[in-house]
Amino acid sequence: MEVMDNKEKTGLNRMIVTVVDEVIDHLYPVERFSRSMFPDIYEVLRDLFFRRFQVPAHSGGAADEDIVRDQALRILDFKNLLADNPHTVVLLYRYSIEKFIKMKYSLREEAEDMVQEVLARLLNKKMDRIREKYDFNYQEMPSFKSYLMVTVRNICIDIIRERNARLLTAGGLEPIDDIMDAQGHKDVSRRLLIEEELSFFGTLLDMYFQVKPKLELCLKLKFRAQVQRDVLLRDFPGLDDNSIAVLTADYRLVKDKKMFARVNDVFNQLEQKKKKSDSLRKWIDVKVDELLAHLNNSHRAPLYDVEKFADLVRFYYQ
Questions:
Q1: How far is the C-alpha of 193 from the C-alpha of 154, rounded, in Å?
Q2: For 52-70, how does the pLDDT look when each residue is reduced to its tens digit (9 = 90+)?
């Protein structure tokens, strides 16, 4: 058998095209691969098949159809596609990738630039890593499309960080909430990055498990974020009205040392301990340092100081 040249591809008879399309419909049913989301699925997969198809030694008859079908099932099977032709997988999902990115970027020029950069990075190295890590046999693994789109989202964030390592200048130059409300193309990029930071911050808080309610309350107090009565009652059932009044008071003009002295009795009551107020202030300072370290370790260079972290906390709880 020999690999088909371009002239032979052009002369393929209708039988081969029909068989290949039948295989595509079988391997990629519309229920899972809607033709609106995969508009060029036939063109992409036919092209791959034509490049890989080996011409039978004889022509005509049912045997040839069986050979074509067997080769199409092997070449176009998605597991084999990812293993042997990851670039074709990118082409197959190109429309979905473009749609995902354009949902994040309202300005057409910026979106198109981002699409080209993401596709280039996928084709360069990222698809090789996906091929190595994605396990079709692991039941808890998300769908391939979900897995791919998480990768695309992370690539977008990497690109934004690389373009401007100082996008997160909230506090010193621009408040985070101003960035999140703005409409310019630079601010769209900043919003995407800040959304990722807020999500990561929430994940960090979850790591504190049982101490999380205390940590969140102390963060709100330290950085003067609003402490809400319903949240207090949810996290600390049985709080009396006096304790709630102390925790929800306005401390914006009160220094930390004096504020923690006022709220210390409430924490001692909750924990049934008799700690000094300064121990509570020092405890939250240690936790702030821990959170700052985790946040900065997720970047190539430290982006957070206490002031920027305070802005992130206030925006997270607003």
A1: 10
A2: 887 765 555 455 888 889 9
